[in-house]
Design goal:
143 residues, alpha+beta, 16% strand
């Protein structure tokens, strides 16, 4: 995804804080909390305050560049988004998160819910929890 182009198209520039947050999220397989992002950037000698991390995440989420992903304890974290409306599955052991699409199945469910409730569904959020292949193998091996 061309983060700079999306920011520019929406009237924003790729500032140093935005670049630092995006680069950090690009290297993470797990969703990171704002505090974890702040700590990781401090360890890289980046002078970015926690409030700036929150503001940056808010903007990147609003622009669809970052997704909110919940850990097994339902604490929010942030991961880079890819193109399209995707969902996440999160490992309950290592917290690794993977995107997946489920649009056809979800569309049928949304239609059924609209019919049953008379609500007009405007958006949805789906996230699954389980064990990644590595953690599943460890569990089978009794580690």
């Amino acid at each position: 995804m061309d983060y700079k182009a999306i920011l520019t198209q929406n009237g924003y520039r790729l500032s140093q804080p935005r670049k630092q947050v995006i680069e950090l999220l690009q290297t993470s397989e797990v969703a990171l909390s704002p505090q974890q992002i702040h700590q990781a950037l401090q360890q890289k000698n980046c002078e970015l305050g926690l409030v700036s991390v929150y503001r940056t995440l808010e903007l990147l989420t609003e622009l669809g560049l970052v997704s909110v992903v919940y850990d097994p304890q339902r604490n929010p974290g942030y991961m880079l988004s890819t193109v399209g409306h995707l969902h996440h599955i999160v490992c309950q052991e290592c917290h690794k998160a993977i995107e997946f699409s489920a649009s056809n199945d979800i569309d049928q469910l949304v239609q059924r819910v609209e019919q049953e409730t008379s609500f007009q569904v405007l958006d949805h959020f789906l996230q699954l929890f389980g064990l990644c292949p590595d953690c599943h193998q460890k569990q089978i091996a009794g580690e």
